[in-house]
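Notes, p. 3: input format for complexes.
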Amino acid sequence: MKKSFADKLVCPVDKSELKLQVFATNTDQEIIEGLFTCPTCKRYYPVIYGLPIMSPDEYRQFHLEQPMLEKWGHQISNGTPTPKFLLEDK
Ligand SMILES: [Zn+2]
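Output follows (90 residues plus zinc ion):
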């Protein structure tokens, strides 16, 4: 995913501008792994294999996202019964 494309993305829930942390890029400076966070609703949207994961909560697959996020040192909450995909405050 190109940085210029990432800059255009907004939170699908509330249309807020997202904050992006880039964890890994390829040789073309495209974002391979990263994390978008929404300052309004506190949801996070990971970038995995160059693709931003911005599905509605009910279609998110927590167990697929968790390893990447933990690799980069992020604690994430998996609220029950429905995962909320919120970043925990440090
Ligand atoms: Zn939001």
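The radius of gyration is 12 Å.
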